[in-house]
Amino acid sequence: MADGVDSLVSQKLGGYPYTTTTWVELNGGLYKWLMIEKWFAFVVLSLIILVAAFNIVSTLTMVVRDKTKEIGILKAMGATAPEISRIFLVQGLIVGFIGSICGGILGYALCWIQDKYHVVRLPAELYQVNAFPVEMRVLDFVAIGSAAIVICLLSALYPARRAANMDPVEAIRNE
Fold first, then answer.
1. DSSP state of 120
2. How many CB atoms lie under 10 A from the CB of residue 99?
3. How far apart are alpha carbons 130 and 72 in whole angstroms?
4. Measured at the alpha carbon of residue 34, what is the angle toward residues 33 and 36, in degrees to the nearest 5?
5. Distance CA 131, CA 164 (A)
6. Residues 6+ apart with CB under 8 A from 6
7. How many angstroms separate the CA atoms of 149 and 108, rounded?
8. How far is Cα 99 from Cα 95, in angstroms, rounded to an integer?
9. Between the N and C ends of the chain, which has fewer C-beta atoms within 10 Å?
10. How much of the chain, in percent, has pLDDT values that exceed 90?
């Protein structure tokens, strides 16, 4: 839209000695910096999420290993594989829910602090703004929280399946 307005104003002014510049052209450095920062944040956050997912898998796998005898007893008493699996999926869901709530609160607090106190400042001589802009949208918080819960649930699938497929006799005997 800015380009359309730019060309319209240029036509009305008749060209030389008048020139027009769009706000995108004026603030090109800022927008390039913001795009680089956005991609960098995406990569860093993706790596953090990957590490968190591996931690959930390893933690629940250790719980399955530690609870081998109890799982064997439950299966010997008639618990079905889906019921055993559900126990560990619910644990993953609880971890995801608590983590999403804590992360949402922390994220909101950090965004609010940046918005209110401008902790992350930008050089005013290079950019048109003096602080890193923050926009908080409810949909973003809901989407990120939901994604975290789904990732935790997916991370719990392997340990849940491993627990569900245990042989009750072997589980009780080897403990």
1. S
2. 17
3. 62
4. 65
5. 52
6. 20, 21, 22
7. 18
8. 6
9. N
10. 66
Percentage of residues in the chain having pLDDT higher than 70? 96
Report CA torsion sign: 139, 143, 144, 146: positive
Per-residue pLDDT, 2: 62
Domain residue ranges of the chain, discontinuous segments joined by +: 29-174
CA distance 86 to 94: 12
Residues 6+ apart with CB under 8 A from 10: 18, 19, 20
Q: Which two tokens stand for residue 135?
A: 């926009």
* CA distance linking residue 127 with residue 48, whole number of Å: 30
Q: What residue has token string 């999420």?
A: 49
Angle at 92 between CA 90 and CA 96, to 5 degrees: 115
